[in-house]
Structure prediction request, 109 residues.
Amino acid sequence: MPKPSLTPELLGLVAERFKVLAEPARLAILNLLRARELTVSEIVDQTGFGQANVSKHLQVLFGHGFITRRKEGLYAYYALADRRVFTLCDLMCDSLQDAAKSRRKLLAS
Prediction:
């Protein structure tokens, strides 16, 4: 199946999603949610970030469709909406490793 043409509108949407992922704290939260759903308190405990900061990042991630939220009693549980975000992360990690190898070869020469 051919990939869609990158129209200006589509490029804008892609850029907006990349902006969301450009924040290390949001990537850390997504990485935690990779294992299981968590409450805000659990995310705060595991990241060491302040509650207001975590809540702000969760709101952005939720608003852009990266995570889901369900309420149970007094708690809100957050989970990944789409695991494909880690495909993108894995591609970037592979690219960074390749670049590091190339640099090491240049420095060894």
In short: The beta strands are 38-39, 67-72, 75-80.
